[in-house]
């Protein structure tokens, strides 16, 4: 089975977010699928131009989010089309992953298998949580059984712990470290640490605590910027979305100058 460091060989890799525009059937869809695909490919090409180490494709604009049990087939079908198109412009050895909101973990695995993607980002892997779309139950057991069923063992599963945009009151007596231990016991391929919401930095002391707690790869999933990146390079990978957008706002266009400055700082300071 493929392992994290076979995909990401640097000591701290940079993964760029491709926030796909709203998909068909969602409130903000602009009735132009081809334009949506063109934009996603353009963002991918920009990330490749600045030698990012990986790409993560996500349907971030599908607000308001619904749980996967309410998805129509158009969500999985469209994400498959987008990922297929993106795969035509990237080298096979560039790690590429997918997340389907909200908690479309099985759907993401299916797309990853069909499109030869390398990883998925999974929500609610261990311990349920309450998000703005309602309660989501833990799903590690079902997800990994499905991965086995479709022979997708080479698709890695990186799981959020104490996920952003969520209440964890029910599991308040379970620490972040214990959550990571549970995710490791349930065979995740890496854990993702975030702040409380999109663009909010993760707590550095939590990253330090996880480093002492788990041998799993640790990814930072929100809030890394050119000004604070030095605080997070002890992680194995940094997922960058909002900071690469104009004015640091996730819903804006990718800002090439922001990408350029960030990657120059990474290289200049040997953070790799």
From TrEMBL:
A Pfam match: BtpA
The record's section on SUPFAM superfamilies has: Ribulose-phoshate binding barrel (SSF51366)
Q: Which InterPro entries match?
A: BtpA (IPR005137), RibuloseP-bd_barrel (IPR011060)
Spell out the family assignment given in the record's similarity comment.
Answer: Belongs to the BtpA family.
By what name is this protein known?
Answer: Uncharacterized protein
Organism of provenance: Rhynchophorus ferrugineus (Red palm weevil)
């Amino acid at each position: 089975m493929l392992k994290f460091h076979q995909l990401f060989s640097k000591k701290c890799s940079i993964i760029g977010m491709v926030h796909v525009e709203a998909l068909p059937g969602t409130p903000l869809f602009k009735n132009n699928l081809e334009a949506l695909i063109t934009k996603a490919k353009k963002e991918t090409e920009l990330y490749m131009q600045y030698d990012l180490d990986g790409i993560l494709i996500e349907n971030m604009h599908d607000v308001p989010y619904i749980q996967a049990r309410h998805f129509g087939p158009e969500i999985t079908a469209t994400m498959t089309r987008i990922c297929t198109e993106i795969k035509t412009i990237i080298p096979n050895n560039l790690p590429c992953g997918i997340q389907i909101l909200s908690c479309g973990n099985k759907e993401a695995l299916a797309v990853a298998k069909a499109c030869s993607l390398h990883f998925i980002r999974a929500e609610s892997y261990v311990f349920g949580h309450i998000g703005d779309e309602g309660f989501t139950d833990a799903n590690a057991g079902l997800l990994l059984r499905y991965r086995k069923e479709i022979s997708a063992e080479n698709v890695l599963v990186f799981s959020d712990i104490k996920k952003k945009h969520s209440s964890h009151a029910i599991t308040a007596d379970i620490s972040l470290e214990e959550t990571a231990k549970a995710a490791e016991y349930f065979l995740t391929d890496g854990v993702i640490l975030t702040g409380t919401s999109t663009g909010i930095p993760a707590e550095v002391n939590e990253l330090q605590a996880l480093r002492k707690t788990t041998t799993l790869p640790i990814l930072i999933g929100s809030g890394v910027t050119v000004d604070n990146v030095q605080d997070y390079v002890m992680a194995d990978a940094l997922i960058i979305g909002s900071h690469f957008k104009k004015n640091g706002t996730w819903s804006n266009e990718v800002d090439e100058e922001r990408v350029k400055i960030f990657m120059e700082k990474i290289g200049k300071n040997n953070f790799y």
